[in-house]
Amino acid sequence: MSVDVLDSIAVAEPATGAFARAGVLRRLARDRVAAGAALTLSLIVLAALLAPWIAPYDPYFTDLTKAMQAPSAQHWFGTDNTGRDVLSRVIFGTRATLMLGLVGVIVGGLIGGALGIFAAYYRRLDGWIMRLVDVMLAFPAILIGLAVAAIFGAGLTAVVIALVVATVPDVARVARGAAVGVMGQEFMEAGRAVGVTDGALIWRYLTLNCISTIFVFLTLRFGQIILIGSALGFLGMGAQPPTAELGMMAAQGRDFLFMAPHIATIPSCAIFVIVLAANLLGDAFRDVLDPRLQT
Amino acid sequence: MGQQIVHRLLISFPALLGVLFLCFCLLQVVPADPAMIIAGPDAKAETIAAIRLELGLDRSIPVQFFEYIMRVLRGDLGRSIISNRMVSEELAMTIGPTVELMLGAMLIAVPSGLAFGTLAAVNRGRLADRVIMACSVAGVSMPVFFIGLILIQYVGFKWALLPFTGRTGPVWDGGLPSLILPATTLGLVLIGPIARLTRTAVLEVLGADFVRTARAKGLRETVVIVHHALRNAMIPVVTLIGLQAAFLLGGAVVTETMFSWPGVGRLAVGAIVSSDFPTAQGAIMILAIAFLSINLLVDVLYVYLDPRVARR
């Protein structure tokens, strides 16, 4: 059944020490697609970080006399229905969208990774933790987003909670799979025999040997998480107007699709480019660091 | 096989309780005190207290939760605040269209995903493989609403080939044109992952001994690929389709909202936006239960396709 399959993909041998970082980078650079993806993604992240300085206009400044202009030299991506500069809004929107994805993946990765590793180390907890994970897996992320938005009101918090819940169970399974593999290694037994404490065994022996698998899995998930986040934004469960967030911008532009298609398509395109670059980079990381995570 | 299914049911039970609890919470956040609303603005404190007693609002949360489960089991999901109809009636009207949309999407995605994946595997490393894999990565990275926006703008509006708002009726009764665009939108996002996994699975199987045997005894290549390779490659693919059920469900919510498709997802979104908590609770519950059932179904199918699982 599905549980076993997920577990078995990730039963990894321990990565050989701390992976040689320079070697990884060199191998990534040789792969032209991966290098392009990495470059694109770094440019996007840089633009998002520097948003207040590089955005040509104020993303919230409305000017109805300039509403719905097509892309031009003054407004590279045109203006939206209230005359706001779409390029500036896309830059700020990217910032919000990336933040959502990062927070979701990092928080979800930490919780899920800890759950998986504890499940592998403390056999007593294994059944309980994995049951909990199964239950979490029973909630599709979009539904969690809808439910949380209904209970606490729509907003970025609702989306973050949904993204974390979407990340935790899968990461927990992959981490457990990797950790069970490491647990079977002789050095674990040796460590225990010489009296290494539980804490040190878990952190120095177990976690550090699982980290590259978890990291690769998270980079592979990052794109999907961004897609879920922007879908929730599109449904109106996330950022509320006037805040710029790419999914929500696409939803707002939908009402003007026939008069000014660029208002909706440009933010959608931006999401596509971010997710594509993230996916390509994730694939490349997997090929270099952990080919066993093939899906 | 029986054991597998029992195990799955055991997992489903706490998940179901979780779903119910979440939906119960949804009803607890109604901004105003229901007793106060029923009693009216200038009711005395005693009247409100009496109504609270009658509604059972004075009892502890676990007791109320238990009573809620009992009500749900009787099929009583409350009344919509907006339309004043029973939530169960509203759901009954929307389930059909949602199932129709999902089946339509699967009908588009599964055969083409299998075909593209197999084609890529057979032509491994050649141009066809690279093109299919590139399209598949692009497809996986595409937001559902982007595909929908493009289809609406061109096929629906500019070329005016197909309707793109609402549903004109069931498929068998002239509803097919209105189904095509939403189902294509939802189906297109699924082709990529299915094709990708089919490729991996077929490649793995193509190297197996029994495939060499099949070739050695002189079977035609198409027979080898379709009957020997693809059939065995189906096992991980079915699992993937099960894992994608969450994706399908989420995509359906977005697609329904975009195309004003009168399904459960649009009902849920509309209810949340208009703070219609009873309806939101009902719609979310149905979607979650549907998801649990799909997973159960996939596990059963999995045992059927790979009898080795049952013996483990």
Can you give a write-up of this model?
The complex is a heterodimer of chains A (295) and B (312). With 295 residues, chain A is mainly alpha-helical. Chain A is 73% helix and 0% strand. In chain A, helix 5 packs parallel to helix 8 (156-183). The relative contact order of chain A is 0.17. Mean pLDDT of chain A is 84; it is low at 1-19. With 312 residues, chain B is mainly α. In chain B, helix 5 (87-122) packs across helix 8 (176-206), helix 10 runs antiparallel to helix 13 (277-305) and helix 12 (264-273) packs antiparallel against helix 13 (277-305). Chain B starts with a helix and ends with a helix. The interface between A and B is large, with 50 and 65 residues.
- End-to-end gap of chain B: 10 Å
Query: Which bin fits the share of residues in helices of chain A?
Result: over 70%
Low-confidence stretches of chain B: none
**SS class of chain A:** mainly alpha
| Poorly predicted tracts of residues of chain A | 1-19
Q: Report how far apart the termini of chain A are.
A: 16 Å
Give the helices and strands of chain B as they follow along the chain.
HHHHHHHHHHHHHH
What is the secondary structure topology, with strand pairs?
The complex is a heterodimer of chains A (295) and B (312).
Chain A: H1 2-10, H2 21-30, H3 32-49, H4 51-54, H5 86-121, H6 123-137, H7 141-152, H8 156-183, H9 186-193, H10 198-234, H11 246-254, H12 262-289
Helix pairs in contact in A: 1-8, 3-5, 3-12, 5-6, 5-8, 5-10, 5-12, 6-8, 7-8, 8-10, 9-10, 10-11, 10-12, 11-12
Chain B: H1 2-28, H2 34-39, H3 45-55, H4 61-73, H5 87-122, H6 127-140, H7 144-158, H8 176-206, H9 209-216, H10 221-243, H11 245-258, H12 264-273, H13 277-305, H14 307-311
